[in-house]
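Q: What structure does this chain adopt?
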Amino acid sequence: MRIDQAPNRIENIRDQIQLVFDKLRGIQDALTKTRLTPLFQIDIASPYALSE
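A:
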């Protein structure tokens, strides 16, 4: 991989991570609407907070 391609690759990885976090939030929202909430809690931070 050439150095000038690295920023695009990093952005693609960030986008994929963001999709995963969005899916986790969707799961969390669904669980919040059910009776499973006390049994299963996810604390989700933004992946961008981890990189700063």
